[in-house]
Amino acid sequence: MRFFQPLALWSIMILFVALPASAQTILRDAEAERALHELARPVIVQSGLSPSRIRILIIKDESLNAFVLNSQTIFIHSGLLLRMKRPEQLQAVIAHELAHIANGHLTRRPINFRNARNAALVGLALSAAVATRSPEGALGLAAGSQSTAQRVLLGHNRAEESSADQAGVRYLARAGIDPTAMIEVMELFSGQEALSASRVDPYVLTHPLSRERIRGLRGFAAAYTKATPTSKESIYWFGRVQGKLSAFLRSPKWTLRKVKASDTSDSALVRKALAHHKNSNAKKALGAVNQLLAKRPNDAYAHELKGQILLESRQFGPAVQSYARASALAPNQPLILAGYGRALLATKSSANTQKALGVLSKARDRDNLNPALLRDLAQAYAQTGQPGLASVTTAERYATLGQLKTAGTHAKRASGLLPRGSAPWRRAQDILAAAEQSENRRRK
């Protein structure tokens, strides 16, 4: 698909867990994830957790919601992120969810089958992320995500919510972040308690609200001295993640109307570049990116964006150069490496294909939650005469997407091509077992 098609965007960017119509879409973007990490870092430190172990991902969903899936992963809905007015509000959401992790509140009441199934699919995706490191753990997670689909999303009781509120406010205050932002976030949801169950946002169901709870938050926040003013760094990263997400999800016309022509801030230039690229105007898109690079020549994410525009515009040689620069500036960023590998493959040069294999393997070692990366890696294996590895990687790709029947077909093929007992062969067996369990449950 071309970049300007609505579902092809965010490809600097994108990971689709695109299964049934009701399944969620996880948006992947190196810059956005870096921004979220920078905003979360001071809060994570105050929670006693490790910043290197916490991952924050965006789900494409207009509803106002955020939740923890496990002890390392926080999901924030795009609708909630776009409703935030200042970075402290986003940090408050993160602080609340971190409190659930730190306090061990990792079970939720069933909301409905749709949300439970979505959570199960996310579980399948995450299972692929650990497959190369722990095949047994991946198999258990894949199987468990299916068998517990009705009980994955459990609501916290009010005692847990109050505990998370209080801890979240404490994290914010200790990090020098205005704790009243937590109250502002809760007030976004307070009016929804009166809505019918069919219209209420999931956050209201998983995070029960009440005026008493908000009053409690005011009491918690009042116990702390006034926080320091918003840092320039927080404002910067908040602007980049929200601006980029907005430009991706909204029409180019809307974006260009909202961004003043005279605005040359980093966020504005990124938004203009995305809007023009969605309009298939590569010249204007590259012009905006080049303005940003003139200001920030060592910005890896600007080079990545330029590489993406060039690649989607079929300017493969220049795309490779831009991605090479981006990967040199951010050598361990897996999404940038994935884009670099894709650009190398697009040149159809045997030397570049061999190089792409190394780049994509490095990316995969750092982030296995990316079906597009696995697709490209399988292609690189096939083009370098390694059909067994191509088949098992394709199987992992379909397993990540939750398409276990198709994954099983490729895993069976891989089993006959790979050395018995090797690590890739064992991965194929894990996928086969998960596919068989899924089929057995379907028949029951």
TrEMBL record:
The keyword Hydrolase applies. One of its GO terms (molecular function) is metal ion binding. Residues 33-219 form the Peptidase M48 domain. It comes from the Bacteria. Keywords: Hydrolase, Metal-binding, Metalloprotease, Protease, Signal, Zinc. GO terms for biological process: proteolysis involved in protein catabolic process. Residues 1-23 form the signal peptide. Its cofactor is Zn(2+). CDD domains: M48C_Oma1-like (cd07324). GO terms for cellular component: membrane. InterPro entries: Mito/Outer_Membr_Metalloprot, Peptidase_M48, TPR-like_helical_dom_sf. Pfam families: Peptidase_M48 (PF01435). This is M48 family metalloprotease. It comes from Harenicola maris.
